[in-house]
Amino acid sequence: MTTRHAVISGASIAGLSAAWWLRHVGWDVTVLERAAAFRDGGQNVDVRGLAREVLDRMGLTDAVRAANTTETAAVIVDARGRVRAELPSDGPDGATAELEVLRGDLARILLDGLPDDVRFVFGTTVAEVEHGTTADDPVTVTTDAGQVLHADLLVVAEGVRSRTRDRLFAGDGEVDRRALGVTMAFGTIPSTPSDDDRWRWYNAVGGRQVHLRPDPYGTTRAILACTSDEALAGRDRGDTLAVLRARYAGAGWQTERVLDAFATSDDVYVDDLTQIRMPRWHRGRVCVIGDAAWCVTPMGGGGAALALTSGYVLAASLRPGRDVDTALDAFDAWMRPLVDRIQGIPKGIVHFAYPQSRIGLAGRAVADRILTSSLLRPLIARFTRVADSDRPLPPMPDHVGSTGR
Ligand SMILES: Cc1cc2nc3c(=O)[nH]c(=O)nc-3n(C[C@H](O)[C@H](O)[C@H](O)COP(=O)(O)OP(=O)(O)OC[C@H]3O[C@@H](n4cnc5c(N)ncnc54)[C@H](O)[C@@H]3O)c2cc1C
User: Parallel, antiparallel, or unpaired: how do β-strands 5-9 and 28-33 relate?
Assistant: First the structure.
């Protein structure tokens, strides 16, 4: 049997999981990454639901546990930092998940767990994709550097703003982008003695939130999240920070500290939350996975868990003896219910989560206390149980063997 070859575009959680599992079942794998070097950045993500089992089957749970952010609980605070409510964090899928990790640490653990023979090309993107006319040459990928790669499958794992997806699918209206009207700026800031091991969440009028979370490196991870009708992702850094400073004027609590620190941090990541919906995640020998295919946004939660799970499900679907078209249909059918459940964010949730007026904020504070009361905690806990299913993971063909990098 000839070895099948996958080209994967994007070396983050989805791409690395696909690389790991496709190599595991015997595929030859080449990963293309636009960034000049491996990307270590990013803030908290969590491994929830089925992704815990995927990680376990990769033998990487202990490594992720060791990289834990050290966060122990999640609380809502007022302008003086007093705790007003505590979100349920008991169990593996609480507000602070059992496997809570920084995105860069998770990506690094996946990278280090890959066999040495997975090839990486950094600083490159897909320039052209041509479908072959024979079964022996199903897809030809030409990179922007002119490298020509013949493959049995191109996996597009380029994140929410994937250009290759847009080029290959958007022309037929198959990429539905839904802006949620929320912008988030994530960044690493110096710790102060007032920081502790809890995720502290502050709401201010005008649809503004400030979050401070511990990390394992003695720094603090901050998030500014606000309703916004102005797109900030991809804009000039100085410009973005100026908009945020104006937007957060008078917000209170530790806002000024975060804004001052973001001005000098080299690790600020800004995202205008956008859901991606596609009726099909594959065409011919091209398959889209992770945020590129179904971005659920931090508002839905579970994006990293879905990305991790999708690499497993893709490789399991492509089991030997099954043709690629049937396998990609099976992948689509298996992943869709998981994704749909998260993307169905209840109507009005943005309004509830980001109150604009003083009355709205007061109402939110009352709701927080009621919803986190011992009576309703189990109900609320269901919202953080995402990327999970009663279905077992599809069976994986036999292990072909791998050695860590
Ligand atoms: C640097 C970084 C920081 C992040 N920080 C956070 C965070 O703080 N909080 C949070 O909730 N989520 C964050 N995310 C997003 C989070 O990783 C994803 O929501 C989730 O893990 C799903 O991952 P993904 O692999 O599908 O997409 P992503 O993690 O977005 O990864 C996409 C990868 O594809 C690469 N890429 C993009 N375009 C191309 C192209 N044309 N050709 C080749 N490669 C390409 C990107 O450089 C990236 O490595 C971050 C992502 C990145 C890349």
Answer: parallel
User: What's the pLDDT tens digit per position in 184-204?
Assistant: 999 999 999 999 999 999 999
Model pLDDT for residues 385-395, shown as the tens digit of each residue: 666 778 899 99
pLDDT at 405 over 60: no
Burial class (CB in 10 A: 0-12, 13-18, 19+), 250: exposed
SS3 readout for 37-77: CCCCCCCEEECCCHHHHHHHHHCCHHHHHHCCCCCCEEEEE
State whether the beta carbon of 34 lies less than 6 angstroms from ligand 1: yes
Calculate how far, in angstroms, residue 131's C-alpha sits from the geometric centre of ligand 1: 27
CB of 290 closer than 6 angstroms to any ligand 1 atom: yes
Compute the residue count for the chain.
405
Strand partners, 200: 75, 212
Least confident span in 111-120, 133-142, 253-262, 284-293: 133-142
Domains detected in the chain? 5-68+101-177+275-345 (3.50.50.60)
